[in-house]
Design a protein that fits this description.
Oligomer: heterodimer
CATH class of the largest domain in chain A: Alpha Beta
Distance between the termini of chain B: 51 Å
CATH class of chain B: Alpha Beta
Helix content of chain A: 25-40%
Strand order of the largest sheet of chain B: 8-1-10-9
Strand order of the largest sheet of chain A: 7-6-20-19-18-8-10
CATH architecture of chain B: 2-Layer Sandwich
CATH architecture of the largest domain in chain A: 3-Layer(aba) Sandwich
Number of domains of chain A: 5
Bound molecules: iron/sulfur cluster
CATH topology of chain B: Alpha-Beta Plaits
Strand content of chain B: 15-25%
Structural class of chain B: alpha+beta
Number of helices of chain A: 22
Amino acid sequence: MGLTRRRFLQWAGATGIGAVVFNGCRVPDHEIQVQSPVQIPEDLVTGRDNYYATVVQGPGSSEGLLVRVMEGRAKKVEGNPDYPMNTGKHGLRAEALLQAAYHPDRIKTPLRRVAKGGPFRPIGWPEAIAELTRVLTEADPSRVVLATAPIRGVLADVTRRFADSYGARLVGFDPLDLTVLRAAIKRVFGQDALPDFDIARTGYLLSFGSDFLGTWLDPTHFARGYGEFRQGDRERGYLVQVDSRFSPTAAAADEWVYVTPGSEGLLAMAMIHTIVSDGLGDDAAASALTGGRGASALSAFAPSAVAERVFGETGGGAERIRKMARDFASADHAQALAIGGGSAGAYANGLFNLTAIYALNHLVGAVDPPNGGGLVFNPPSEEPRITAAPLREWKQLISDMRAGAIDVLLVRDANIDYGLPGSLGTREALGNVGTIVSFSSFLDETTALADLILPGNTPLEEWGTDIPDPGPGYRTVAFQQPAINRFNDTLSFGDALLETGRELGFGDQLPWATMRDAVRDTARALHESGRGSVTQPTFEEFWKRALERGGWWDMNATASAASAPPQLPTAAASPDLAGDEDQYPFFLVPYEAHGIGAGGFAHLPWVQSAPDPITTVTWATWLDVNPTTARELNLHQDDVVIVGAPNGRFIHVTVYVNPATPPRVVSIPFGGGHEHFTGVAAKRGANVLDILADTEDAETGALAWAGTRVRLTKTRTRVRLPKLEGDELAVQLPGEEVIEVQHVRR
Amino acid sequence: MATQTKASAQRDNPKWEMVVDLDRCTGCQACVIACQAENNIPINEESAFHEHRAIQWIRIERYWEGEFPDVKARFLPLLCQQCDNAPCEPVCPVFATYHNNEGLNVQVYNRCVGTRYCGNNCPYHARLFNYWEPVWPEDLRNQLNPDVTVRTRGVMEKCTFCIQRIRRATRGGEPVEDGTLQPACAQACPTSALVFGNSNDPDAKVSRLKTDERHFRVMEHLGTDPSVTYLKQVDVDG
Ligand code: SF4
Ligand code: SF4
């Protein structure tokens, strides 16, 4: 059937299913006229309207997108209905890629500092590449560091090859890295890739600290499953959120269970104790987890022994733990699943916590269950992947920098000056680095210290691939292609590396002229495999089809089976919080901001203006304080307080009196307090990373970002928080409820 | 023929409606930002929130119930309800707001003189007024949707159910397959909490869901006869 013009217009106004019209980056053969809804001649809009499939990756997320492009301008981002991770849906950060592309404060051309500490001077690309080549030629490669945000796919390959050929140290950076989660998945299941969670077909979901509907890993993907979990064609699923903070996932849960920060693993171990001692779970798994000793191996975790540490004095005691264990292991619901992450893994005992949490799955058959639900493992990625290094490694690097042992730092979206705990003294250490070269598209704090800037493209302007991690349970390769031509005099990071590699004389190791060629090589290998969702006789046909669909996936390429359950520890690990309770009475449980994340999205106006789901605050940083605590401290909404940490560091933050905040906990979203990073982000809010103790997870060395206690000091200042809600607490009026609720019995 | 009847019902007389499933909604704001992008909604600066004049055609209201530890936060996506008995319509002195034959409450921007009577009369606070000339930094103007008018200062605006998408999809006069035409919010919504369709098509998902046992309409007692049906959130009691 031919694509009639009318049919196309209908599609163009519809979801985009099948409307992935892609012709490389050339204009399509037929011109399409689009009329404005007001059908008068002056409003006639002439334009070519086209959809390009592409992908955007985050440290734990992968969204396949269709970008609507008209006259060379990107107009709208939609989810790609074909892409297995998000199947047509997309989150607010993906939408805001448009604003990244057209941001007025982008670095529009390469820049070179006139003299150390002097102003920048715009230069051309030939000079920029020549200068980078000179710097690298003159440097001793063992004293050169290449730092980047986590990368997957072809760009990871190019980056690694560049670093290896030259001899530079390659290190990934993400303020909230996934080191602990990866280590737990490896320890409990023997898997290298992160697993998928089949939420749609799970009957009982027990989540510890992981705000999977808000910011954790791939919320769009998980929300897809969550919608079906709630109101799909199966029995409604039951969600329990164990969390020391009231996150959007806690708000969505059927039960929110507050636990003392850092005791998540203790609760999971006590649940395992109950399941094992009452014989409620899989016997073989119980035996493996306890080294054949049964519940006696777990005596340190008997519910009666740990309940007070988990819940405090009032939280329900041992019986509550036993009930949670019985509910979880019950056969009355469809498949149970336990997941954990976020703050649950962000203490000195992070790996202990996540190991115990994920081990629960072995007892209830949640490991790749035959009828769906539970954990679905992913095949190990054949392509290199650059993950974020743990804090321990970064501490060493910063101390090397301080000692003057690093001559050149190459940095791409690794904003370490902003994102490492303030006590590390990163700025000062960076001052001792000979030359800093940044490839970022925006002048973030680290880029502001650079001597040379080779501005990169934004995701809608680049070639690349993504191998999602977590993936959908089978081998998936997404293709990223430029939906729009470069708008400024920028060059993709990958192309800059390829060009510089040639200049440095190791073109053999980087055998591609451009990133597009590298992507085509990946595609060629997929074509030659003859497997998967796209098979075509010739490579050119394969290439076109794969780009139209946004990728290639092979549902038969699944993971190997999980390893046998590990033996669990017999003693609890301590969360080891910084600061003593008397002087620092509050647990500080920070969290990734719903929009701006850990600061990486703070430059995007739509993201800043999107209200936080719980508080409705926009454009600001706030401190969640319990109402009773606030009364005791004589704190009111909009009062500015000094939040002081045991390391002597402090920030000023505005109070949000939050009815859901536990009395001994205060929370601050990450992501604010930029000094630079465009006029949108700069001088707005506070950066909670600045005051965090540099405590590490004892085993992996990852930043224990929830492991700091703080004290609050009231100031005389008040700053009104910009928020969507009004000044009065928005509550449902009894008898006049706007939101109606259906009550069902369990 | 059944198909003929259905086709003619759709073609001659579509009635666009939406169902919002509160048991799916997580308050994630994806719909809000998708709408901003699709409909050329001015960037809501910090000051817009201070003045309570942020323009969001769909917004997520959050209601508190109780206090720690027995606390709930409930989310309500609120947009123009496209009332069949719309209180905003009769008060407009210049007929800038009227009801069209597809069940939509339509705002004619170039007729609006900015009396704001309609806004005052809308019980859902769904109408938003341009107190200032909207400005976009020059580069960001590249993103503006050419299918949607940019409103000027002094003009009232509100959700249109993405009328530009409806126009594009129906221009040929062929029936629209259920599920293929979606406003930007419903298209983005990761949990599929928002379902849009032609309620004159008895087979449309929206027709089925609007009579689900959990259905209700917000502030129905006011007699506005909204075209947006909500499905109750489910609470599991101990
Ligand atoms: S919701 Fe408000 S603006 Fe929309 S039709 Fe009803 S009264 Fe009019
Ligand atoms: S996108 Fe969907 S889930 Fe998210 S707030 Fe809107 S209606 Fe709710």
